[in-house]
Please model this.
Amino acid sequence: MILTTSNAIEGHKIIDYLGIVTGVSSQKQAVFKDNINDSINASKEAAFQQLQANAALLKANAIIGINVDIELMEQRYKTVVSVTGTAVKVI
Model:
C-alpha cells in the first residue's frame, strides 16, 4: 500500500476516492524520558497498521493526505497517536 502526506502520487493516477480512514493508538508512556520516543514510535506504528487495515477494507491500494497527530497526556502517562487520510485506488 502506498502511503503519502501529499494529495497526489507521482507516476500514478487516482481512479477512485474511497473515503476517509483513521487509525488511533494509545500506549502507556515509559516513566523515564529516554523511553518516550519508544512509546511514541510504538503508538505511531500501531496507528499506521490500523489505518492501512481500514483502507484495505475499502479495497484501497493507497492512502493520500495523511495527517499525524501526537498527544502526550502527562497526567495519565499516555501517548495517543491519531492518523487520518483518504483511501484511494490508483493505477
User: Anything to note?
Assistant: The longest helix spans residues 36-57. The chain has one domain: 2-90.
